[in-house]
Structures are given as C-alpha cells and as structure tokens.
Amino acid sequence: MLRFMRLSHSIRGAARLVAIAVALTAPAARAAHAQTPSTFTVFVRSTPIGSEQVAVERTATGWTITSSGRVGPPVDLILRSFEARYDADWKPLRLQFDQTLGGQSTTLKAEVTGTDARSEVTPLGGATMIRAHIIDPRAIFLPNPFVAPWEAVSARLRTTTPGEMISIYQPAQGSFPITVGPTTVEQIKTVDHTVTAHRTRLTLTPVGAPPLDIEVWGDDNGRLLRVSVPAQGLEFAREDIASVGARIVTMSRPNDEEMRIPANGFSLAGTISKPANATGRLPAVILLGGSGPTDRDETAFGIPIFGQVANALADAGFIVLRYDKRGVGQSGGRSESARLADYAEDAKAAIKAMSDRKDVDRKRIAVVGHSEGGWIAMLASSKNDRVSAVGLIATVGVTGQELNLYQVVHGLERSGRPENEQQSTIDLQKQIQQAVVTGKGWEAINVSDSVKRQADTPYFQSFLTFDPAKYMKDVEQPLLIVQGERDMQVPPSNADQLETLAKSRKKNVPVDKIKVPGINHLLVPATTGEVEEYGRLADRQVSPAVTTALIEWLRRTGQPSR
Predict the structure, then answer these.
(1) 33-66 residue pLDDT tens
(2) Rounded to whole angstroms, how far apart are CA atoms 435 and 181?
C-alpha cells in the first residue's frame, strides 16, 4: 500500500533510516498522576528492534520521567538511566542520562533556570563540553535517541490547539519548534480493554534539516501511547498497543460484524460491513490492502482508506469484508517469511469464507486491491471461479524491480544531491536488487549487515521478481483500473500498462480504466502527490470520485440487491 510501498521497497530509504533513527527521539512527560512503568517497543520499518521502560511520577515539586532500555541495530543503544524533571506546569528543570550509543558512552546533565539552560555533556567518549543557551521557559527537553522524552510532548498536547508552536530544546545543541496540527480521537481495542487515544499530527522543524511530520497518540490522562515517524518507518508503541491483538477502530457502522477467517494454520481477523436493514443475499466486495503491516482499515497518515471505502460500498448496497493482514492487528500468522503468493493464499481463504456465507450472493463476489493489493487480487483471482470481478486501484503495472528503481531515482531527483552521488546510489540499488533476486553477490556490496537483513527477505525477493504481465493472462474476470493522476508513488502510466495487459488477454472480457484528476496514492486530493505532503493534507477523505467510479462499475458487473 501507499506509505509502505515507498519505504519497504527502497533500500535507499532503509539506509537513510539509520541516521534518522539516531537523530530523532524526543522528550517525555504526559501523565495526570503517578503510574507504574510502561514498556514501549521500538520499531524500525515495522520490525521490533528493542524496548524502553518508562515511568512518569507526580512529585511534590512537579513531574519526573525516568526510563532505561536497550535498542538493537541500526540504533544500537543501551540506556542505563534517563531522568527529566519538570515543575507542576511542565516547565523544564533538570535532565540527565547515561547511555552507550554504537559502543561509545555518553553522559549529559542539564539545568534550566527560567530562560537560562546550562548543559554538561560527554559525547560518545569525547571530552566534556559545557554549553549555555537561552531557551523558552516552557521548552520540552528533546535529547537523542529515547522514547521517554515523548511523554512530555504528549502531556503538553492535552492543552494545545492546532496551529500552536511548542519549543523543543536539545541540550548542547539548541532549540527548534514543533507546530501542532489537528487531533483526532480513536478507539484502540486490545485483548482485554479499549483505550481512547488522542492522535495529534505534529511538524518538527529541526535546525538545518527539512520539516518532518510526526504523529503522537496519548490517552485521556495525557500518557503516551505511541509515536510514529512515517517518513522514516520509525515507531514507538506501548506494549499493549503494540500487541498483535490490538487494533485501531477508525471506522464502524452500527451493524458491523467481526469475522474470523480460517487460513493456513491460523486465522485472519476482519470486519463485515453491510447496508442498513440488509436482507437476503447481497453482492460482496473483498478489499485487499497493500504492502507492509496493513490493518483492515488500511490506515495511512491518519486516513482509514479501506474504512472509508467500505462505508461507501455498504451504503451503496454491498456487503464488504476487510481484514488485518497476517501478523497484523488481531490476525494470526507471521510475516517474516511470507511472500506475495502467501498473501494471495490468505486472500483466497477470505474469498472462500465469503462464498460460504448465507447472506452473500456467491455469483457476485468482487475482489478489489489497492496498490500492491492489486497484485494480490490478480493472484487470488487467477482461475478462481468464486471471483466475479477484479478491481485494481493505484496498482503497479511494471515489475517490482522497475517500480523500486523508479522510487529510488525519483527520491534522488528531489534530494538535490550531486549527480555523482545520485548515480552511485542508483548503482548500489541495482546491485542490491540483483543480490536479493539471485541470492549471490552480497560480499561485493558495501552495505551494513542491518541493511542486508532488511533487504534480503523472501518478501522483497517476491516483490522484485513479480511481473504483472505474467499473471494478467490468467485473470479472466471483468477488470476495473483506477488511478489517481497525482500519484507519485505509483505513477499514472502504470494504469496504461495494466490496461494494455488486460486487453491482450485471450478472453474478450470488459476492461475499464479511470484516471481521477488531483488524487494521490492515498486516494485523497493532493497538491503535489509527493510522499512528503501526506502528513499535511487538508482533505483526509477518500475522494468520492474514486468510490463513485468503483460503485458504478460494480453495479454494471453485478447490480446489488435492494
């Protein structure tokens, strides 16, 4: 899908991630009363790499945040101790920590009096340095690279409004602003309880670096639940929220139904959405999400894409299934060794489960995939007489290798880096692709072990070698191709290539192609369509032009019962 299609298919992005993971962790404090420590899991590109135990305590003089933890490569951090003190109004007083980063020890002590901040730091085994700064008296400490400091950000967000600025202070370096964006309220279902989460979009503007969009979740008491840096694939999540049994309920209808889908040795968890007062057998639509750890609502940058699409389809008279991918949310299974073919088997299990339902018209079951989900739809529908129609939305029309290289080149062209550096990165990417596909040549490639581990996976190999031309000939159902004209992750030319492939099939079955002006990869209106714009999009609703095109096509291929 969308956000994952960009990073999980770009080793350049993975390498760049290492630097950002070390450069971007922040202050902590967000509690309403003393509480036992919480354990946070640290993820890089959806892979857990460590944890940190964080405690927030209300003291006689204010608030104290403490933590310790260990995070593996690419961060490679041992946090022996962290402590940040604030007064009762969350004004900074004192900060100190002791860590080993990349095998080198660092200690820091900082004191704040009003607007005067004085820090004493021993950086990575070097000589002790004394630094003094004039800061905002309500600044939040933001040392690198810990989870705990975000507790203070979360606490402050309880009383901020969109458009406000929060001053961040990095001891020994200086200050920079955070711009507060809108907040949405979500319900997160865990195994044994439901958490009300306040999700706020922030824009960080570090000194000497471009703005960075971040999302912070806090509970009703202001305690931290989760932090996400989508552009870097970096995430911290409280243990109960990070559990595979937890999911965010972003969209729901009064008659929604939870569904368990028997798969190969595990079950998939999904949601069935129906028209109001539904009766009899209804035509069905199964939604298939894109790459990465996609939940049933296919939530990206706060936009529940499939949640909104399912709602529109149900209102139009269809019964709709969307499900958490294996190893995500409340679905079982593991994704470490999964290939595209395995995800297609999961989709086939969902198709069978729907065809077995008494409220589904077995002759009218459509499969609709978004982004990489379109490939899964093709695989699952191939020679499958249970599927009556196939929809491909923002789906790739070239090989995985071609798309991956396009995304790397496109990112480099926008980076402003010297041409020789760009070419070196492109050459490296091609070497990595070849090594992943053949399993040979890694010894000649100058990349870290962590980058190799992220790239050399069964999934990435299956992605790089996937060729839609090879599989389209076996998709015998009527086909709809929908593409946003402002999609910069999967360019509009991919829709043309899919159309050409579909029209070359031996069976003369209908092919419809629709390009929607002004729509990006997330299916929402956009100005540039670039990934960097996603976190700042004003319109966060899937375009009615997309859902209307889908509904009208589904009705032509199988009129819903009323």
Answers:
(1) 445 789 999 988 778 899 999 999 998 889 999 9
(2) 42
pLDDT at 245: 64
Q: CA separation (Å) from 155 to 211, 286, 394?
A: 22, 40, 39
Contact 86, 110 (CB under 8 A): no
What gap in Å lies between CA 62 and CA 163, rounded to an integer?
Answer: 27
**Helix, coil or strand: residue 289:** coil
- Single out the residue of 290, 404, 396, 371 nearest to residue 9, CA to CA: 404
Pair 322, 310: CB distance under 8 Å: yes
Joined tokens for residue 550: 């889908």
| 10-residue averages of pLDDT along the chain (562 residues) | 32 32 34 67 85 93 94 88 95 94 88 92 78 92 89 94 93 87 85 85 85 92 91 86 70 86 92 91 96 89 92 96 90 89 97 96 96 97 95 97 95 89 93 94 87 90 96 96 97 97 92 97 96 88 96 82 40
| 541 in the same domain as 476 | yes
Contact by Cβ (8 Å): 294, 4: yes
**What is the model's pTM?**
0.67
Q: Is the CA virtual torsion 273, 278, 280, 281 positive or negative?
A: negative
The rounded distance, in Å, linking the Cα atoms of 425 and 420 is 9
Which residues fall within 8 angstroms of residue 113, CB to CB, at 6 or more apart? none
Residue 562 lies in a domain: no
For 522, the 3-state DSSP assignment is coil
Spatial distance between the Cα atoms of 361 and 339, rounded to a whole number of angstroms:
31
Q: Are 534 and 501 found together in one domain?
A: yes
The beta-strand segments (E) located in 324-455 are 360-370, 389-393
Measured CA to CA, the distance from residue 119 to residue 98 in angstroms comes to 14
Strand 299-300 and strand 174-189: the pairing is: unpaired
Return the residue matching tokens 């690198």.
144
Exposure letters 257-294 (e unless 16+ CB within 10 A, then b): eebebebeeebbbbbbbbbeebeebbbbbbbbbbbbbb
Query: Sign of the C-alpha dihedral, residues 331, 334, 336, 340?
Result: negative
Q: Three-state SS across 429-456? A: HHHHHHHHHHCCCHHHCCCCHHHHHHHC
Structure tokens that stand for 383 in this block? 């020679």
* Count of structural domains, the chain: 3
- Among left, alpha and beta (phi > 0; psi -120 to 50; other), residue 532 is alpha
One-letter amino acid of 478: P
Q: What share of the chain is helix, strand, coil (3-state, %, to 5)?
A: 30, 35, 35
- pLDDT, tens digit, for every residue of 528-547? 999 989 888 889 899 999 99
Q: Report the C-alpha gap between 388 and 414 in whole angstroms.
A: 42
Same domain, 207 and 258: no
Q: Which domain range does residue 18 map to?
A: 2-242
Phi, psi torsion values for 134, nearest 5 degrees:
-95, 125
For residues 184 and 306, state if they share a domain.
no
Tokens representing 318 are 């269809």
Which of these three, 242, 273, 294, is where a domain ends?
A: 242
